[in-house]
Every structure is written in structure tokens, then in C-alpha cells.
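Marked as duplicate of an earlier ticket. Keeping the data here for the record.
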Amino acid sequence: MTVLVPPLARDRMVHGWWAVKGLSDAGDAAWTLALAWTAVQIASPGVAGLIVAAGTVPRALLLLLGGAVADRQPTRQVLISVTLARLAVLAAALAGALGPGVSVPLLIAVAVGFGCCDALFEPASATLARQLVVDDDLAAYSGAAQTVTRLGTMAGAALGGGLVAAGGLAASALANAVTYVGVLSYLTLVLRLRIPLPRTRELPVLRSILDGFGYLRRDPTARVLVLTLSGLNLAVGPALGLGSALLVRQQGWGASWLGALEACVAGGALCAAATMIRRRPRQEARWGFVLLVVQGGAIMLLALPRLPAAMVACLLIGVSAGAASVLLSAVFMRTVAPAYLGRLASMQRLGDDVLMPAAMSGFGALAAGASLGTAFLLFGGAMSGMMAVALLRIRSPQASPG
């Protein structure tokens, strides 16, 4: 049976999903802040770092399994099951906080539980757009979804401090659980998928994972996309997460200017993603990689120890990140064979998870051993070079999804 897909601008069901997911992202941001704040209150800095990072290990271990599950099982069923599991984790956190009290084992268990849930939820969620909207609307869908997510995350982070100060971990767990009840209700009662994707239930899970790597070998365009998108944050993550703080401290600008630099990034990304909803170039893949070459140059600009240069650099990083992520997300969804979307999405995320700690450590070691400017120049130059190579490989007619 053919299902009519309404124009995205009038698609009330999709708009509702964005709203519900944005509230959930706000709850997640507030919860993440509460977890980190509680950890530093009850544990040493080293143990607190262990608690905050505890969820990354199970997520990395289970991501490939999550990709296989996403390509085998109905998407709504997976998302509903994982949302129920997240509610169970939050209920355990709430019971522990109100009962015996918050402890290091409780926080680690909760972080691990969320990491496992993320490994199953994210690959399945990556296939959702392809099942809701037509190909021509994928970029607009991605732009709107990312805009709502950024707004939700910013709002949650802003409100999270007051929430944990007023009611501790229990209040944050309860608030996040309420948002997940909304997600669960919408998935169960309202959201209906329109465009079926092929499934790979006939393959055992391990063979399904190996088949995903085989597809990556066979399809050069998909391989370029996965490899480059996997390394997308390995330069900008350390530059913003560590480098900007070091720059502000070295120059004595004050913590308020660190917030201003972060606001430049967030505001630029938000405006660029929103702009891509209505206006985007025809050759999405080409322009996406061009923007990432520019982003590498903006990271290099941070090597200039001047506040105006740093603000311009952060604004450029935000604009290029917001626009490129929208364009390349659409290219990824449109290019990858539908039967492999979940598995390749999990590979893309796995590369980021596994390599980011090494990238952070490498940036810090380079800044300490040589100079902060050298770290910005090398990381930014490496990013521009890698994205330029990807641009050359993706521009051939058979490899130009945009």
C-alpha cells in the first residue's frame, strides 16, 4: 500500500516528533549536568572523571550490535524498548537517591546503563528520517531536527544547574523521566513510519555486522562518507573542548570570554542549521566538505592570540559545523543503501567514540610540549587536508550524491 507523505512544512506528525525529541534533549542535558555535578561532590576528581566517562565504554562496545539491531528490527519497536529501558535506569537512580542515598557505585551503574541504551537508540534513530520523509526533504528534516536538538540542549544545560541545586540528582532524574514518558507516548500513540526499509533478519548478528563492513569495502562513496564523518570531531572537539579554555587562560581574558566564545560557536551553528532548512546548495556533498575545509582553517585561526580573531574563528567553526552537518547528514542518508543505514551509522559514531580520547590527549600533549598555537595549526591543518581529500574523492559524477 502506498502511503502519501505530506510536504514537510505541513507534516504535523514530524513537527510533533521534533518537539517531543527537543524536550527529551533538554532533559538529557540537565541530567548530564546533574550527573557530573553530583560526581564531583561525592568523589575525588579522578573518580568523578571515571563516573562521567563510564557510559562511553559500553556504548563503544555495543554500537556495532546496535547498528545490526537497527537494520534487523522495526525501528519503532527498538526506540520504544530503549525508551522503556532508559526509564528503568532513571527509576533506579531516583530510588537510590531517595533511599540509601547517592553513591559512586550508583552513579557508575546509571552511567553504564545510559551508555548501553545510547548504543541501541542512536543507530535506530539514524534510520528514522529515511522512513518518515521523501529524499528531497532529508536536508530540511536534518536541519530542523538539529536546530531543535541544539535549542533543547542549550535550554537543558541552562536550567540543569538550578534543577540540581534545588533538588539534587533526584529532581534531575524525575524531570528527565517525564520527558521520556512524553517520547514513549508519542512513539506509541502518534508516530507512524511511512517508507519501509529492507531488513536483514535472515543473517545472524555477527554476519550482519561483517556484512556492513563488506558493504563499506564495496561502495567507495559510502566509505568516504563514513571515514570522514567519523573523524569530523577529532580536530574541532579538542580545539573547542580543551584548546579554547587553554587560550582564554593563557591570555588572561577571563572566564566570561570563554562563555562568549562558546556562544559564538553555538549561535553560528544554530543559525546555519536553521538556514539550511530553506536554503541549501544543489551539490550538498561538495559544499558540505568545502565548509569543513573552511572549518579547519578557522581552527588554525585560533593560533592567533587575539580576542577578535578567536571570536571570528569560533563563529566560523559554528557556522561551518551547523551547515555542513545538515548537508552531509542528508547526503549520508540518501547515499547509503537503506538496508545498511543502521550499521554504517554505528560505524561512524564508533570511530568518533574510540578516537576522541586519543585526540584530546594528543592535543593536550602538543600544547604542553610545543605550544598551543602549534596544536591549533596542526589539528586545523590536518582537518582541512583530510576534508580536501574527501572533497576530491566525492566530486566524481558517480560519487556526488548532492
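See parent ticket for discussion. The CA atoms of residues 272 and 351 lie 25 Å apart.
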